[in-house]
């Protein structure tokens, strides 16, 4: 990699007129390019959720789901008031920590979109074509958002179908809301990576910072439930807004807040990228 800067040229009027067409073409390209990886993720999380649901009747009959003997602090931290029905069981075994797993999809994809592509020497070639930078960023965000929504929709439908097949009382609405509630928090984490990818020169930092932030916020949320001195810090955690749809209802306000953060931080990547010199 050399230090030859490739200046960014302003878009022409013709390019502005063709922007929607360019966005659509590049969006389709990104959907196809990243779909295979997301398919494997979809299979993995769907199979895991199905296995948890299939195991629920066995746990229910054995009596091992009685949480009354658990330490009170543990029950408070992980919202384990009861595991006698499928909703709290599925929440504790799948959805409480699912954002920590699925956040790696948008984080790694967005980190690779700009600084990762620059490290591979691909950006200078890509922007030798008439592709505006803002279209590139918007297309990447929309592609990842679309794939994440499709994956979570499949997860919700499959979880409900498995529950119905074995006679477990899980409604379709509950299953879909619990799954789709993962979308705003994972996209908020991913958008941080996208902004960092536009501003920094190291892909590792663009991945490491949002991952560390997410685990720190999860820890703040858990500890804040049981330690009064830490409770105010829960307001800084995405996980307080994430809530627990299966036990407490869909946190619409929290979901809207997280989605707003995702959109605002993701949009911040556009001016950051516009000011960036690309090194080849």
Physical arrangement of strands within the biggest beta sheet:
1-2
Which percent range describes the beta-strand content?
under 5%
Portion in helices: over 70%
What is the 3D shape? Answer: globular
Question: Distance between termini?
Answer: 6 Å
Question: Radius of gyration from the CA trace?
Answer: 21 Å
Structural class: mainly alpha
Number of strands: 2
Number of helices: 14
| Major beta sheet summary | 2 strands, antiparallel
Note the run of SSEs as H and E: EHHHHHHHHHHHHHHE
How many domains comprise the coordinates?
Answer: 1
Q: How would you state the average pLDDT, rounded?
A: 86
Which features characterize this protein?
73% helix; two-stranded antiparallel sheet; 280 residues; 1% strand; 2 strands; mainly alpha
Summarize the structure.
The protein has 280 residues and is mostly helical. The chain has helices at residues 13-17, 19-62, 72-78, 86-95, 98-102, 104-119, 123-126, 133-165, 172-180, 182-199, 203-224, 238-242, 245-248, 252-274; strands at residues 5-6, 278-279.
